Amino acid sequence: MKLGTLLLRNAAIGLSQLEGALRNQVLYGGRLGTNLVELGYLDLEMLSAYLAELTGFPIATPTLLDDADVALLDRLGADDAHRLRAVPLGYLGDARAAAAVAFVAPNDTAAREHVAARLGVQVTPYIVPELRALYYLEKHFGLPRRARFLRPGRAASEGEAERRKSQPALGIVMPPALTLEPRRKRSTSEGPDLDAVPVALSFGVACERIDGAPHREKIAEVFVEFAKGRCDALVVFLIRDGNALGWRGYVAPQAAGKPAAPKTPLE
Hints:
Strand order of the largest sheet: 1-2-3
CATH architecture of the largest domain: 2-Layer Sandwich
Radius of gyration: 27 Å
Number of domains: 3
Oligomer: single chain
Largest sheet: 3 strands, mixed
CATH topology of the largest domain: GMP Synthetase, Chain A, domain 3
Number of helices: 12
CATH class of the largest domain: Alpha Beta
CATH superfamily of the largest domain: Type II secretion system, protein E, N-terminal domain
Shape: elongated
């Protein structure tokens, strides 16, 4: 299950909020949870709880991150910590054979193995949201974050204040609303000649093919075949988690001897 699906299932956010966060993720980068927090749809504590439920890993709380073991931080090093988005928290047990490490992506096996090799101990992963991880990586290693990951609401150093001058409110700007003018309605004489295209499938046959379709592409093809002889045009989008993965389309042929409809600017 993905984070967006979990949040929708638990009514933590609405579909329009998820779509807005996905749109901004495409435009500005960052993880989905980061964009949801920046847009004000979730707070970090709620995001942490849902990430823990989703991954099954314990939460790296601010207290654990504030008290991170300095020796382990030095052993991992700033470059690897920032590249892997990992923050060593401390040893587990008196034997010091294992250490807790906060990861933005705790399911990344390669990252966990690399950190374990650098620290020389077994690693127990903890989950931490991207925004919180970046804050503590800056705090412990002194490497500044990019402006989009700076959040208002806490005291900023002089250097941060300069960086924030170029940062939009809440770290992100929603794109302007896009309005498309309706296409000019065609007269009957300008339309396609549906009589020139025989009906390819009956309703019953179409239903049977959809029931037996092995995958979604075949279902889309059935819709297109069913449209022939019935519709001027048809477009089928294949949607998964709010993203269009592919499409099928059909436009009826122009009637013989009839002039084509003039194109509008949007065509």
